[in-house]
Structures are given as structure tokens and as C-alpha cells.
Amino acid sequence: MENIRFGLLCAVAVICFFLYQAWQHDYAPTQADATSANNQSTAQQDYAAGEDDVPSLESAPSAENDGGPEQRGPQASAGERGADNAPVVSQADQIHVVTDKLDVIIDTRGGDLRKVELRGVPVSSEQPDTNLRLINDSAPNFFIAQSGLVAAGAKAPDHRSRYSAERKEYELADGEDTIEVPLTWTNDAGHQVTKVYTFSRDSYRIGLRHEVVNNASDDWKVSQYVRFWRAPYEITGDVPFAQAFFGVGWYNRKDGGDSYSYKTESHDDLAESPLELTQQGGWVAMIQHYFIGAAIPPPDAKVRFFGQPKDIPNAAGGFATGFIGAQQSIAAGARTNLETTLFVGPKLQDQLDAVAPGLGLTVDYGWLTVLAKPIFWVLEHLHALVGNWGVAIILLTFLIKLVFYKLSETQYRAMARMRKFAPRMQQLKEQYGDDRQKLQAKMMELYKKEGFNPLAGCWPMLVQMPVFISLYWVLRESVELRHAPFMLWIQDLSAPDPYYILPVVFGVTMFLQQKLTANVTMDPMQQRIMQIMPVGLAVFFAFFPAGLVLYWCTNNLLSIGQQWYIYRKLDAEGLGHKAAHS
Fold it and tell me: How many domains does the chain have?
């Protein structure tokens, strides 16, 4: 009986956990689905180019300081607002770049990324032939990447300056691994800056290099900056039991050492606590479900990271994040390169850490990361073997059952012994039913005399619960499973079953499993709860990703087969169902 009660408490705990996640979802701030960025209706409002607050040179970290935290963020640059209200880039100002992974529009005004489509990444399962546009300069999902230089003395090219380009069309040709897109800017003082984007095959990494030539007679102090600026977005049709993180993440250098830790701050929290941090190395990123825009300075560069609210015309709740690098003095007649790396794309775990240390942490599995990471590793290798994520989940379930076989056998043996004690326990209930304290004492005396631990059957269930929750987060957060088909009607394992067939199968298999494990020591109330539970959980699982319900259905079917096999062994030992009813 205690075993059953403990199992019920475990089930209630899991349900409460996901109900709490649902509450967070219901009361979280509204955000706009990135996928709707592709719906360019005439009602959309074009946004200005992000004109007003160019970082000043004073906000750059000093190359001589110790890199400790400084409380200064980007400052408005005086006298730079005349060209502010430019509309969305016109076709005459566009540079079009196509690689095997990206379809990019660069604006010659600022030399900035204004549109980035992820080729082969569908906007939704209903629109499999329409690429998702992550960077977009139109409503309602405004999200652009700006960059430039700030300088002392003569003006430097920022995200409002006009560049010239040799060509308007670039395409990564067969046999090429990289392609460079140069844009040039000059001033009357003798300074020349060439802004060079480098795109690579089979990669969402974008190299950004400012080649600075000082042909003036005086030294020139400059700093490079990168800024992502976006509107909030709403995840429509999201699974309601876990709100995906939306905000800023950065790789924070720990005080007094060379180690780093991953930190985040939500879109809402930035209004109350803006990010202002000076350090060496690391990165800063705009994070949303499945996708990321990251700015990664060189690991030895001293930079100031910032994250703060930044209003968008005719929209509320905009915010920006990025960095400004340390001042660099370029001698008269000298040249230098200021480099950084951008990553604009899905959070593919095999690419992120190769781009920058710690970038893979943006795939956030929460407090069970230590379990979820190995689970994903195994799942990924199974997928490489069979080529289908659904089949990989089934094989993973089989492996998990194999690992926990001995624990399951212990659980079933404990339940079998409990059935053997049932007549004696029933006698105790009849004798001491009105005195619960005395009844508990007599039951514990019986357990001690027979050398039986009533919780022995519960620990296997308890041990497997973290695995179940970890797998939930793997299916929830891994972009590799986004829109991944299984077979027949299941064409997206990361979304709920559209016809509720798997939840029904889950309910039926759970009911059959209960029939095998029916405990004669349950009172009528517990029996009613156990009868209702398959129906309640089937309804509950109707909102879960189909991949998770597939795992649980497979787990139930394997458990039924496992129980049948173990009970046959127990019958042979005189501990099974036959012994319990003899």
C-alpha cells in the first residue's frame, strides 16, 4: 500500500511540475512568433535603421585597464542624427548573398545584415517550402544586426554610414568553401575602412572584419562595435508546459580567473537590470527558442558587453545587446584589422561549441543538463545509424529499459512479496483499522520480521523520473528534432500528435500495465485513482511533444513485455501471481 501511495505521489509531483510550467506560460509576457516574420503583409510597418544611439568612444573599455566591471553603457553620439529615419533598405541599396545555408541581404547604408533566411529550415511544418527568416527588418518580428566603428576626431563609419560595393550579387559556387563580401568607406581626412563579411560552406558562422587604413597625418583611435536589435516575439502554437527562454545570454568571465560561466537575462529583466560588463573574451547573444544571434569577439579582446531596452518606432518592448571593443590607436600611415564573428542560425549542438567555447550552453536543458546532454548524445548517434528520429527514440527507450532492467526486476520482486503479505496485512487492518498509529507500527514490525523494505519497489520508479524529465527537455529544446518526421501522421516529433492517437495508445498501454501490476492491498479509493489515472494522463499527454509520448508508449509496451517475463520467473520461484492467489 505504501508502495502505491508513493507511486501516486510521484505521478502527482510530475503533473504539478508541468502545471507550474503551464502557469508560467500563461502569465508570461506576450512575444511574437519568429516564424511569422515571413508573412509580409501590406499592413506591416517598416522600421527605421536603428539610428539614434551610436556607441561613443568614451563607452569603449580602455586597453590599459584591468578588465573589471565598469558601469557605463553605450552613449548617444552627438550630431549624428541627421540620417536617422531611413526606411527599410531599397533594392538599389541591397547586396544579395547566397550560400548553401544562408540567403542574406546586406544594406549598403551601414553595411548591416538586414535579412537572413535560413535555407532548408522551414518556417513551420505547414509551410515546409518557405525558409525561416531569422534576421528581418520589417514588422512584426524586427531583428537586425548592426556594426561599425566609433572614433576620436574624424568620423568613422557606423551603422548609418554609406558604403560602396563592387557587386550586388554574391553566390557561393560549387567547389568554393568561403566567399568574401567587401564594402568600402572613405572620408576626407584620409581614412579608409573596408568592411568584409566572410561566409562559409555548411555553416551559419559569419566572419566580420573591419580593415582600417590610416592615410592621415595623425594617429586615429577607433573601437569596433556590434549590436543586435529586435522586437519581442510571440511563440504561437507553443507547447504550454514550458516557456522557451527569450532574452540575452552571455559567457561571463569569473572574477580573478580564466574560467567562464553562462548567464542569461530575460527580455523583461533587462528593463530593470541592464547588462553592463567589461571583460576579456566571451560572447553575447540574442536567444530565442531553437535559434540564436551571437556576437563573438576575439578571445583575447577586451570588450564591454551591453544589453538594454531600445524602443522601436510604433512598437513597444524592443531591446538590444552587443559589445564595443577596446580603443585601438592606428598610427599615421598604418593599417589594422578589427575582427569578430557572428553566428546567426539554429542552435545545432555539433556546431555551436566549434564556433566559440561555451556557445553550446545556449541549448538550455535546465537543471537536468547533466542527464540531458548524454541522452541527446546517444539519441543523435542512434539517428545517425537509422536516419529517423522516431526510430531513434524507440531504440533509446529500449536502451534505457535495458539499463534499468535490474532495478525493474527489484521493483517487481518487491511488489510480488507485497502480494504475498496481502492476507496478513488484511488481517492487521481488520484488527487495528481504527487505530492507524498501531496499524502502522504492526505493519513495520511485519516488514522487519520478514526482512522486507516496502519502499524497494518505489526507488526504481523514482530513479527513472529524472530520465523522463530530461528526455522531455531534449525533445523540447533540441532544434535537431524541430519538424522531424516519424511516419504516417506524425510529421513533427516536437509538436503534439495532431490526431491524439499516441495519447490514446499511451492510455491503453498504461491500463494494461496496471492490470498486470494490480495490487490486492489497495483500498477502494486507491483503486479508483488508479483506474482514472490512465485517462487523466492520456488527456494530459495530448499537449506534449509527440516524440515524448512515443517514448512513453514504447516504454509502456516494453514494460508489459518485461513484466510478463519477470512474472513468469517469479511464478517459477513461487513469488508470482499464482502464489499470491493460491
Answer: 2
